[in-house]
Write a structure and sequence with these properties.
The protein starts with 9 loop residues before the first strand and ends with a helix. It is of the alpha/beta class. Strands 16-15-14-13-7-12-11-8-17 form a nine-stranded mixed beta sheet. A six-stranded parallel beta sheet has the order 3-2-1-4-5-6.
Length: 486
């Protein structure tokens, strides 16, 4: 028998002994509990291993000692009292045994391989666990990716919707839980001075970059089947793109926000076979160096096929056919084994239409939302250079996102709290997923053949990315940004 649930909310983690739970979910849940934000939450782990609850507690304890920097024994003892565990198969018969461990309100978290999402959702439904009891609720939280293309995403939706309503399903994209991502919405819509210039009349281009120095590490078996386009651009960067481009909501609600994001994706000019070279570029890293470290090429990584054509770098040029953004290119790129760990949304404004004083050169103004390595907001502006002559130079007005002493939360902490509260603002509705796949479908089909352009590990990426840019545009240097350039 499980421990008494009383009237507590229950979080059931399917895949509770896996790496996602160990590295990310348990540290997030521990910190929320330690801060007193989830005092009545009961956590039930479920996995194939036939462990007694005490062994699961030891497993979680070891994980927190490694991955929770604020670990302390007293807080752990309080947290451990909320843990329970049940081993079983991922089928309706095994899951039905969870019933006596659940409170009236339950959040099921699928910390499972993507191939099992549909199976788990269906098994929970067949066990009767998707039905909402009186005075409670049932929700299903699903990690990305949601399919591998449009057809598989639609098939997954049909399978999940056999027992779950769309409003019960919370598709998680952890980028939407990041502080800087949510700040983009607040900064844009809570400051009146921005809205008059947030359009094609004043914006020259938008660049969204997510660069990593890491290779595939221990994910080769997964990554070699997926690639950068599916792993990063279809979800994470597409979300940043839609949030940057959305129209101001008439009122603030999860459904209105998600409606507006879908409007952006529906307005993206379709990429065709004829325009593919202008709108998409791919690359794969070869051997190179990062500092003094010698780095192997992708095809020499353990678990990667020697003739793999999987892209480790992907870049897109997207254009939005609406009044606000007509003619403004949005450049999205992400890659592995690049020059630095850098993530940002950068908006370049058009040059002043008139003359500027003396010999002053008006360099482009940029508004930059930095996600990593440090969360910050930067504005690049032109000012007079100190001295007797009327000369100009560019200055960076930098605002760090968090002040000293302020409590910052991880993306998983934020999204877990939203899920428990029933706030769907930062979760994906299926039509968002569907339209993101529709945008990328022509690129996926074209990249089934041919080979990516190669680039040296530790570099700025493949030369092919340059062909996406309009005349006069330049990619913001990845290495320079990480070294402190604004």
């Amino acid at each position: 028998m499980g421990r008494s649930t009383d009237e507590k909310t229950t979080l059931v983690i399917l895949g509770a002994t896996g790496d996602l739970t160990r590295r990310l979910l348990m540290p997030a849940l521990y910190r929320l509990h330690r801060l007193g934000l989830t005092p009545d939450l009961k956590i039930v782990g479920y996995a194939l291993q036939n462990w007694p609850p005490a062994r699961f507690e030891r497993h979680v304890h070891r994980a927190l000692r490694v991955f929770a920097p604020d670990f302390e024994t007293a807080a752990w003892k309080r947290f451990a009292s909320s843990l329970d565990y049940l081993g079983g198969e991922l089928d309706s018969e095994g899951l039905r045994r969870l019933r006596d461990r659940l409170g009236p309100s339950v959040l099921f978290y699928l910390a499972l391989p993507p191939s099992l999402f549909g199976t788990a959702a269906q098994a929970l439904g067949e066990a009767g666990l998707a039905r909402t009891p009186r005075g409670g609720w049932r929700r299903l939280m699903v990690e990305k990716p949601f399919g591998t293309d449009l057809a598989s995403a639609q098939a997954l939706r049909r399978q999940m919707h056999r027992h779950w309503q769309e409003e019960q399903i919370l598709r998680i994209d952890h980028f939407l839980g990041k502080e800087t991502t949510q700040n983009l919405l607040v900064f844009r819509f809570a400051n009146r001075f921005l809205e008059p210039v947030w359009n094609a009349h004043h914006v020259e281009q938008v660049q969204i970059t997510y660069a990593e120095t890491l290779g595939v590490e221990h994910r080769a078996a997964y990554y070699d089947q997926v690639g950068a386009l599916r792993d990063m651009l279809q979800n994470h960067l597409m979300q940043l793109f839609s949030l940057t481009a959305i129209e101001p909501p008439s009122h603030w609600s999860p459904e209105v926000l998600r409606d507006h994001k879908v409007e952006v994706l529906r307005a993206v000019r379709p990429i065709t076979g004829r325009t593919l070279a202008r709108h998409a570029a791919r690359g794969q890293y070869r051997a190179g160096r990062l500092g003094r470290k010698v780095l192997a090429g992708y095809r020499n990584e353990p678990g990667v096929a020697r003739d793999s054509i999987t892209e480790t770098f992907a870049a897109l040029r997207l254009e939005i056919d609406n009044w606000r953004w007509q003619g403004v290119p949005f450049y999205l790129r992400s890659g592995k084994r690049l020059a630095s760990n850098t993530s940002e949304i950068a908006i370049q404004f058009r040059k002043p239409p008139g003359a500027v004083p003396g010999a002053v050169r008006a360099d482009p103004n940029w508004m930059v939302f930095r996600i990593q390595p440090h969360q910050a907001m930067n504005l690049l502006a032109n000012a007079k250079r100190p001295g007797l002559e009327l000369l100009g130079h560019q200055v960076a007005l930098c605002a760090p996102y968090a002040r000293s002493g302020e409590v910052a939360f991880s993306a998983y902490e934020q999204l877990l709290m939203d899920a428990l509260a029933g706030d769907r603002s930062h979760f994906l509705r299926f039509d968002e997923v569907e339209w993101a796949w529709r945008v990328l479908e022509p690129v996926l089909k074209a990249w089934r053949t041919g080979v990516p352009d190669f680039y040296a590990a530790g570099s700025e990426g493949p030369a092919a990315q340059v062909r996406l840019l309009d005349r006069g545009h330049r990619w913001r240097p990845i290495r320079l940004i990480a070294e402190g350039g604004a």
